[in-house]
Structures are given as C-alpha cells and as structure tokens.
Amino acid sequence: MHIVVTIKQVPDTSEVRIDPKTNTMVRGGVPSIVNPDDTHAIEEAVRLKERHGGRVTVLSMGPPQAIAALREAISYGADEAVLCSDRGFAAADTLATSYVLWAAIRKLDEEEPVDLVLAGKQAIDGDTGQVPPGVATRLGWPQLTYVRRILEFDPQARRIRVERLADGGIELLESRLPAVVTVGREINEPRYASLPNMLRAARYQPRIWDRKTLNLDETKIGLRGSPTIVSKVWAPPRRQRPPVIMLSHGDRDPDAVAADLLDRLIADGAFDWAPTPAPAAR
Amino acid sequence: MAGHAPAKTEQLPDFSDYRGVWVHIHQRDGVAAPVGWQLLGRAREMAEVLGCATGAVVVGHQVRHLADQAIHYGADVVYVVDAPVLALYRTQPWALAVSQVVQQYKPEIMLFGSTNDGRDLAGAVATILQTGLTADSTELSVDPETRILHASRPDFGGKLMSTILCKQHRPQMVTCRPGVFPAPQPDPTRQGRIVEVPFELDESEIPTKVLDFLPEEKKVDLSTAKVIVAGGRGMGGPEGFAMLRDVAEALGAALGASRVAVNAGWISYEHQVGQTGQTVRPKLYIACGISGQIQHQVGMQDADIIVAINRDPNAPIFKLATYGIVGDIFEIGPAIARRARELRARFAQQQPAAEGAREPAAASPSGSSTA
Amino acid sequence: MVAEKFDVVVVGAGLAGTAAAYTLAKAGVKTLLVERGDYPGSKNVMGGVIYRQPLEKILPGWWREAPIERPVAEESIWILTEDSAVKVGYRSERFAEEPYNAFTVLRAKFDKWFADKAVEAGAVLVTETVVEDVLRHNGQIVGVRTNRPDGDIAAHVVIAADGVNSLLSQKVGLHGELPPDRVALAVKEIIQLGTQKIDERFTLENGEGATIELFGDATLGMLGYGFIYTNKDTLSVGLGVLLSQLIARKVTPNYLLERFKAHPMVRRLLADGEQKEYMAHLIPEGGWPQIPPLYAPGYLVVGDAAGMVNGAFREGSNYAAISGKLAALTAIEALERGDFGRAMMARYVERLQESFIADDLAGYSRLSRFAHQNPHLLTAYPRLLCDAAHALLTVDGTPKRLKFAEIVRKALRQRPPLALARDVAGALRARP
Ligand SMILES: Cc1cc2nc3c(=O)[nH]c(=O)nc-3n(C[C@H](O)[C@H](O)[C@H](O)COP(=O)(O)OP(=O)(O)OC[C@H]3O[C@@H](n4cnc5c(N)ncnc54)[C@H](O)[C@@H]3O)c2cc1C
Ligand SMILES: Cc1cc2nc3c(=O)[nH]c(=O)nc-3n(C[C@H](O)[C@H](O)[C@H](O)COP(=O)(O)OP(=O)(O)OC[C@H]3O[C@@H](n4cnc5c(N)ncnc54)[C@H](O)[C@@H]3O)c2cc1C
Ligand SMILES: Nc1ncnc2c1ncn2[C@@H]1O[C@H](COP(=O)(O)O)[C@@H](O)[C@H]1O
Question: Is A202 within 8 Å of chain C by CB?
Fold first, then answer.
C-alpha cells in the first residue's frame, strides 16, 4: 500500500504584511508553514497506513527551503519525502504545477504502485484548489475533492468510499483506486509528533528531483508552461463614505424617525417592494 | 497562483475563431445554482463590449427547462448536454461534456461559479483543455482591443487585489465568487437559440458512483440577500431577536448578527457577519445594537447603504453609516416594522396602476412578499 | 521510552545554547539542541546590540555572513527630565569601518541563522519541543524529559540554556524562583520607520547605526533605562525596570513604555512609525556573587539561565555565548575522560573565573548594589544636570560666573555636600 501526499510550503498569510507603497507582500520575516489543509492530508494518510500497513510518501514542488515542510511531514509520520525543485519550475501556475506533480507521481508509481494521492483542498497562498484536479485529470484517476470523511478504503478491492462536501449537501461517493482525494480541516485532528519522529525528521534528507530526473517538456514547466500571468497587484480603493446623516439624536418620536428613514431608503431604491423612485425625487 | 511574467511585448496568436462569453450553469435535480444567473449578467455586459454572443452551458439529464431560463437571464445561445449518465454531478463525465462543447464551439471566455463543485469541475476542464484558469474572481472586465479578460481576485484576506490574464490560450477560464455579481432581472420575452450537443459515454467507463446525497438544511445565505437586518449585543437576548425577525420580515430582509449575539446563543452561527462569519454585500444593511468593531465591519462595509441604530452616539458604527439613529432599538425597531407594513400595503394597492413600478416582489430572487 | 542517547543535550536555542551546541558539534560530539519556540529566535527578545569580539572566539568572521541590522557607529546616553535632556555621545568613524565594534541585530533572524550554523556543524535541532524535567540516576543527571510522546532523551551531560528564571535549574534544585528585586522586566517594540527616515533622524549614512540609552524620566526614575536602537528599517524601542520597583510604584510596563514613547525627546524620533511587534521579557539582574550554583553532576547552566547579565552594559548575549562555549569545552573534557561527576563539572566555573566574565560581573554587581542602595540617583541627578544645563545655556544677561554660583547653590540644596561626596565616592568604587 502506497499513499502519496502532495504538500505545499506557504507563507503564513496571517502574518503577511503589505507594503502600502509598492503593493507587494513583505515576505521578509514571514514564517513559512505547511499549508494547513495539507497537514490534515498527511494525518489521514498516516492513519490509513496505521490501519492497512504500507508507506506514505510526501511530495512537494518548491524551492530548496521547502525541505523544511517535508521534514515536518516526516515528523508527523510520513515515511519518505521527495522535493521537485529546479530553477525552471519557478513562477508556475496551477497548470504547470500539476504537470510537475503528475510526472513525479508517475515516477513514484513506477517505484511502487500508488493506491491513493491525498492533497489539501486548497493552499492558503493562492486559494485555488486547482492543482489536485489538474493532477487527477492528467493521471486519468478519479478525483474526489472536499472530502470530509473516508468511509472505506480497500486497496485489495481497489475501492474507496467517501463523504464529499458538495454544493448544497453531502455526497456519498464510491470510486475506484487509485484516486486523488482532497481534504480540509473537517476530516481529522493532526497529531502531536513523537520525539523519535522529530529526531528522524531533523536528520531526514529528501530526494530532490529536477526537470532532468523527471524528463519534463521544457515548454510545460515554470513560467513558460503557465498560461496565466499576474498583470498587476493593487490595493482596492478605500471606499470613501459621505458623512453620516443623523436622523435622530435620541430626541425624536420613534414613529417619525421610522417614517423618515423609510422614505429615504425607498428614495434610494433599497427595496424591491417599493416603486422605483423617479429620478427627480432625489 | 499564477505565473509572474516580466512585461514584454509579445505576439498574440490569432484567436479569431474563438468568440463568445460563456457561463456554466451548475444544477442539481434540475434546479440551477444562483451563481450561474449572476455570472450571466456580467457575461452579457462583457459580450456587449466585445460585440459577441453570450453562451450558457447546461449539463445534466432532463434539464432543457434550464435552457429557457438561461435565455431569460441573458444567454443568446444555450448548449445543452443531456444524457442519463450526466444526471448527477460527477467530475469526469461532466468535465468531458463541458470540454467537448468548448472544443466544438470555441468560446473565448468561460466562467464557472467558485463553489466546491464549480472548482472541482473547472480544474478538470482547464487541464483537459490545457488552458489558464483563474480562481475565485470578484471583478471581471474585458479589453475591447485585445479581447483579453482581466480577472481580479482578492489576495491576503482582501488586503490586495491581483489582476490575472491568460493571453496565449483560449478559452480564458475563471471561477467567480457567488454573491458578488448581481443577478439580472429575468426577461421571459427574451429569445435565444438552444443547441443540443450529443454525448456518448458508457456508465461502465465512469469510475465514480453517487450512492447518496444528503441535502444540507437550507443554509442561511446572506451573501445573496439584498437587505439585511442585523442585531448585536444590544438586542439583549432571544426575545430581542424575535422582535428583529419581525422587522426583517416586514422589510423583506434576511437576518444577520454580530459574533457576540451568536456566541450568546441568541441566534445561530449561519447568521454571523464579519471576519469569522459571512461577508455580505447587500444593497441595505441595518445594524441594530451593534457597536461596529473592525471584525464586524470587514464583513459588511461593502453594503451600499448602512443604517446604524444604537443607543450610544459614540459607537464606531456611526462612522460607517449612511443614516444614523441614536435611540433604543426596542422603540425604533417596532416603529420601522409598522411603517414598512403600512407602506407595503399601500404600494400593493397602487401596484396595478403604478407606471414604471418594478416587477412584483415574488419574482425577484431575494425579495419576499410575506408582509 | 528513551527515544535516543546523545552525548550532550542542550536545552534552549538562544545564544548561550546555540554557542554550546555549535562548539560541541564542531568537536564531533553527538549533540541535541532542543528549543520550545517555532524556530530558534521566535521567542527571543533583545534590544539588539551584539559586540563583535566575543563571538569571534566561537565563530570567526561571523558578522560577515550573519543577518545583522547595522554596525553601531554612535552610542549615546541621554539623561532625561520630563521636558529636557542632557545628551552624551560618542561617534567614531572607526566604529563605522570593518571589522566594526558592535552591531544591532534582530534576534528572530540572528538566532535562526546561528542555530543553522550549529546544525551545519552536525548538531541535531528539534523545535516546538519543551524540556519539562531532567532524568536522574544515582544523583547524576542523565538526560531530559520533553513534552512529546516517547519524549525522553538520554545524555551524558545536560546543558541548561533555557534563559532567565531557568525552570530546569529549579527542577534540579539549584535555586528557586527569582525574587522581584533580582530581575528586571523589559518591554520592547519594533517600530517600522523606513531606512531613509532613520538615516535622517539619527544622522546616519551607508547603513551605519546608532544606539541611545535613556535614563531618569525615561523610567520615572526607577532603576533601569530606556533604549532606542536603529535597525535597517525599524527601531527597537523599549525599556527595562527592576521588577520590584515596578511593583512598588504600581505602574505597568505598558504604561511606562507608552509614556516613554510620548516623551518630547523620544516622540520626534518615532513619529509616523508603525508598531510591528511588542514583546515583554525578564532580564536577570545578576552580578557574580548573586549567581546561583552553576553545575550539578552531569549538568551545567549557561547564559541568562545562570544569571550572567551585565545590565548596565547590555552585554548579556556576550556572556551567554562565552559561557555556552566554556560549558561545551567542559563537556568535551568530561566526555574524553568519561567522568561526569561534580568535580569535573566544577571545571566549568574555573573556566568562567579565568575568563573576563567573572571579573565583569563582579564589577557590575558592585555597581548594581550601589544603585539599589541609592534610589535617588536616577531622580535627583537628572534634574540637577538638566537644570544646570538649562541655566548655563539660557542667555538672560546674567554673567556666567553668577550662573555657576547659582547652579552650585541649587545643587547643594538638593544634595547636601556630604551626600554629594558620598554619591561620587560610591560611584567611583562601584565603577565596573
Ligand atoms: C479574531 C476575532 C474574530 C471576530 N470575528 C467577528 C465576526 O465575524 N463578527 C462579529 O460581529 N464580531 C467578531 N468579533 C468580535 C468583535 O470584536 C466584537 O466583539 C463584536 O462584533 C461586538 O459585537 P456587538 O457589536 O454586538 O457588541 P458590543 O460591542 O457590545 O456592542 C453592543 C452595542 O449595542 C448598543 N446597545 C445596547 N443596547 C441597545 C439598545 N437597547 N438599543 C440600541 N443599541 C443598544 C450599545 O450601545 C453597543 O454599541 C471577532 C473578534 C475577534 C477577536
Ligand atoms: C529588552 C532586552 C534588551 C536586551 N538588550 C541586550 C543587548 O542589547 N545586548 C546584549 O548583549 N544583551 C541584551 N539583552 C540580554 C540578552 O538578550 C540575553 O542575555 C541573552 O539573550 C541570553 O541568551 P540565552 O541563550 O542565555 O537565553 P535566551 O536568549 O533567553 O534563550 C533561551 C532559549 O531557551 C528556550 N527555552 C526555555 N525553556 C525551554 C525549555 N524548557 N525547553 C526548550 N527550550 C526552552 C527559549 O525558548 C529560548 O529560545 C537584552 C535583554 C532584553 C530582555
Ligand atoms: N507546489 C506544490 N507542491 C505540492 N503540492 C501542491 C503544490 N501546490 C499545490 N499543491 C497541492 O494542491 C493542494 C491545493 O493547492 P492549490 O490548488 O494551490 O490551492 C495543496 O493543498 C497541495 O496538496
């Protein structure tokens, strides 16, 4: 049994500051963390391993610093880690990211067949949730996103059953393995790593794969392989509100105030049930 | 995340065979998700700028009635992919269906709602089509010269906006946040074309089965409400909220609340507005007994009109308000409800005669006529 | 369950602990460094001046690659009353040239870098892990217990570098909780101002930095001082005051800091700044005689945990680093001999006594005792000095000679000749 968990190292957005002059993110000093949803994916994988035996490999695409994120995953109980890192991977959008991850998962699958890919439902830096569907589509494996519970996981029968947070309700889905499953914080409570795992993580050296190892098409990676580009980043204009119009300072009869308020709101076109104000009325 | 490109003049491929601004109309059991109609409104406006047609894609089984509705909401052409295997939403067959229509009829822009299902589907479709997908956009505009879509989205909790382009690939795909774009008034007299697209896929080729669906209890969807009446600590308890509920009903409004009121158990969490609750953008927000702390403000500051009713003339909410009333909500609230009912009764009588009056409230998506 | 056995476990990845771990790892000793914060430095507060020399003895040329903020070219002392200041400063071009004398640093960055060096040298670093107790066997300390599952670690030597008020040493029984007249409470803010404004307001160029220490009204005359240090584009602003005096005067450190920042002499340096971080921390007001026992069999205490701070000269980090190194050397010797008993551990204190630390701290201790015994020093003299300066510099037709006489008369009214003489003599004796 082999589970791959894709994880991303992200800046802790709760600590990100924006430079008001340049409108850029001040990254200096902002700690990097494992994308929160991904910690739940790791935990779910480790729980499945504890029940079914086998191995958990964590996989990330990112700069060399992302080794810290992979080590953290090892401390939670993952067995092995692989970092896809190459200057050429920089500035990848979700399409180019899913291409690299797809190639890496295929390689892992050749080493030892993969039964399941677990991913976070979205990354807090881009908030897209697009990478896992990209990976699943490329692999041709079923994708089960926004899963809140894995009800059954049977690598022998190659079957999985999950509860999915669909629009408007909960879906009970059954699918084939291997599959790609994305999860969020509803699914479990990540454990506190044991000291032996912490020590293992502190010394762990992940394998590092670049575009040559993965034999990738240069036109599909990094900036070149990314159809979307950020053309500008800007601060949304602060809405300038006119000064408040005080209808009462606590000195008017409530019914008179109510009548005054509703007349004004109707004139402003606030209610569907009132006639549209004639333009001259204002 | 999108790539960060250095600005350089680049040759754009000839995309003249790609025309039209399309929207995916998501549906379950033949009922369309409101975000589809919201996006059709914006698609129509952009199609006018570009001088092209508005398209809608409806996937499912026995969903033709949605095609008519899509035309009423602004579609010129509706592509319907209707097949038994498409009856329930499943990523793989739906992604194939949408991709097929796109490959065959070539829109330049394709919009989805950024709900769980919408993101699930759009992510697969964009990968099949090998094109760019921008997530969770809240602002859309098109450049009539280059025909490039500028899709903007908030980053870092709304502190910044990023504008994302997809220049070298078609269609330009975007998922858009529900509740941001107003749904147009449907026009039952609008005419359009319906194209039925054949779809072949055997059930045995589909890896996933839907065993069951448990609909959620109807969620309080404040994000689409046009009028919200919200209460805070000043409501004093559940009885205060009972009074407020009556005010909301009289105004045809939804009910919101501050965290204090939710934490106290006076009203359920679905009603909470603010940083840890919902972000709302109604036409009118009436804050009753709410002081207007920053965490509350960030959830409602985009309302067009804000009314503050508070005993304390120094409450910060007055800095934000359009109209301010210093007073006791237990006096002002009932007076508003009385007056609103009076007015609505009067308008209902005038209705048949009133020239230029809006449609009856029942036909509008959020209004209610339960006066 | 014992997770693993190390030669040495170092508790706390501050300057003292990391210096120890680095020295050990360099010598090929199997070393574990345990830190409770998210990363080394994440919980560390420092006003931020580090001298070059002492660290050179551990990591030669450290300042060339460490994340420093600015080399210090000017150091000043301001003596404040409510509305005036006497300013004494020294600036030297030589301080602004390599290899420099001192640097301002932000510990969150610096400690992380330093710990990375220890890891590169071969130490194993575990973060987000709290050491809760030591493991004992036959009166010998033989490891630590952490708060993690399966969290025991065996070791020949445990080095406690867990900072002020060392909980570990309390567990070992070397001392109790620090009394309030032995610790200062420090509060500090990082204020974002921008490089250009900082350069202009402190008359700096080419990345050089300045430090100001402010006495008198800065702390409402309480024992302690305020400080302003220039970082690259921020200021470290804060103050430290003896805890017992804060308690006696019933003022909160927060109030003091706000008051300090609003002082007319300080306000204009900080204007338009944006507060980025706020931190509070204790500083041991040690001094050599007051230092608690520093060892037990298999156990050594270093840095703030050992009370090695010279409050008047803000050199805690030097002592921390050097004591860490000396403890490491002691552990290395112990490992070589296979002897972890009391006598072997006592070699650490011998090493300290041979170093400049003991001498410095003894001096500081005299000064600190003098200051404790003469609480008027930080109230009476600032007034005296400022009044004198004010009178002297006011041009009002009074001849200078008469002015001097007036100043002396006033001064003597405030501090009679005998008291004045006692203060001067005391200060001379207490000179570090
Ligand atoms: C991390 C974090 C997240 C948070 N997220 C949210 C969030 O999502 N949403 C949110 O709302 N809050 C949130 N808060 C809480 C927020 O800071 C405020 O505490 C909260 O909004 C205050 O609610 P309130 O205005 O109802 O209560 P108060 O601030 O107590 O105000 C009550 C007001 O009612 C007025 N009043 C009292 N009696 C009457 C009367 N009879 N008639 C008229 N007026 C009366 C008072 O004058 C007062 O102004 C969050 C806080 C934190 C720290
Ligand atoms: C406001 C202020 C300004 C100062 N200014 C200066 C200055 O300008 N120059 C100067 O040289 N000195 C200055 N000092 C003093 C200096 O900061 C300290 O002397 C120095 O940091 C001591 O280093 P340390 O390694 O002994 O302790 P610390 O730096 O306090 O490190 C102790 C470490 O141990 C960790 N820890 C504690 N308990 C445990 C546990 N149970 N398990 C695991 N880890 C644990 C802590 O998280 C911390 O990282 C200042 C101090 C303050 C408060
Ligand atoms: N660079 C990456 N490396 C590994 N996994 C990633 C990467 N980017 C995204 N993912 C995975 O895809 C999930 C959703 O991310 P996103 O699509 O960026 O919102 C994450 O939670 C990860 O599991």
Answer: yes
Bridge-partner residues for B3, per DSSP? Answer: A229
Instruction: Determine the pLDDT at residue B357.
Output: 42
Which residue minimizes the CA distance to atom 3 of ligand 2? C47
Question: Residues B72-96: what's their mean pLDDT?
Answer: 97
Phi, psi angle pair for A271, to nearest 5°: -115, 135
**Residue A267 phi, psi dihedral angles, 5° rounding:** -60, -30
Mutate to test the interface with B, among A8, A9, A228 (most CBs of B within 10 A): A228
The residue of chain C with its CA nearest to that of A192 is C148
Is A192 in Cβ contact with C148 (below 8 Å)? yes
The pLDDT > 70 percentage for chain B reads: 89
Going from the Cα of C408 to the center of ligand 1, the distance in angstroms, rounded, reads: 61
Q: Alpha carbon B50 to chain centroid distance?
A: 23
Interval between CA B217 and ligand 1 midpoint (Å): 27
Average pLDDT over residues C2-15: 95
State mean pLDDT over C292-307. Answer: 91
Rounded CA gap, C180 and C199, in Å? 39
The nearest CA of chain B is from the CA of A257 a distance in Å of 8
Residue A122's nearest CA partner among A114, A113, A130, A111 is A130
Token output for C63: 């300042």
Contact predicate B221/B128, CB 8 Å: no
pTM for this one?
A: 0.79
- Nearest alpha carbon to residue B61 among B29, B33, B96: B29
pLDDT of residue C430: 59
Q: What CA–CA distance (Å, rounded) separates A177 from A160?
A: 7
Q: Which residues sit with their C-beta closer than 6 Å to ligand 2?
A: C 11-17, 34-37, 43-50, 130-131, 161-163, 167, 186, 188, 238, 240, 281, 283, 303-305, 309, 314-318, 320
Q: Do A128 and B135 touch (CB under 8 A)?
A: yes
> Which residues in chain A are closer than 8 Å to C108, comparing Cβ atoms?
29
Length of chain B: 371
Contact partners, residue A83, CB within 8 Å, separation at least 6:
A60, A61, A62, A64, A66, A67, A70, A206, A207, A208, A209
**What is the reported pLDDT for C431?**
54
In the predicted model, what is the mean pLDDT of chain C? Answer: 87
Residue B278 scores a pLDDT above 90: no
Please tell me what DSSP assigns to residue A268.
Answer: T
Paired strand residues for C275:
C191
Per DSSP (E only), the strands in A107-227 are: 116-120, 143-154, 159-166, 169-176, 179-183, 207-209
B326: exposed, middle or buried (C-beta count within 10 Å: 0-12, 13-18, 19+)? Answer: buried
Query: Residue C253: is its pLDDT beyond 80?
Result: yes
Question: Can you read off the two tokens belonging to residue C107?
Answer: 């510990």
Residues C104/C211, Cβ–Cβ less than 8 Å? yes
- Helices and strands in chain B, H and E counts: 9, 18
Mean pLDDT over C397-418 rounds to 73
Q: Are residues B370 and A272 in contact, defined by beta-carbon separation less than 8 angstroms? A: no
* Chains C and A share 3 or more Cβ pairs within 8 Å: yes
What does the angle CA C37 – CA C43 – CA C47 come to, to the nearest 5 degrees? Answer: 160
The answer, yes or no, to whether ipTM is higher than 0.90 is no
Query: Could you say which of C38, C108, C125 has the minimum Cβ distance to residue A202?
Result: C125
Residues of chain A falling short of pLDDT 50: 280-282
Residues with Cβ < 8 Å from C173, sequence gap 6 or more? Answer: none
Tell me how far apart the alpha carbons of residues C189 and C273 are, in angstroms, rounded to a whole number.
11
Question: Quick one: which atom of ligand 2 is closest to the CA of C184?
Answer: 53
The pLDDT, as a whole number, for residue A280 is 44
pLDDT of residue B314 exceeding 70:
yes
Residue B361: DSSP 8-state? G
Q: How far apart are CA A10 and CA A25, in angstroms?
A: 13
Chain A environment of C43 (Cβ under 8 Å): none
Q: What is the average per-residue pLDDT within B219-225?
A: 77
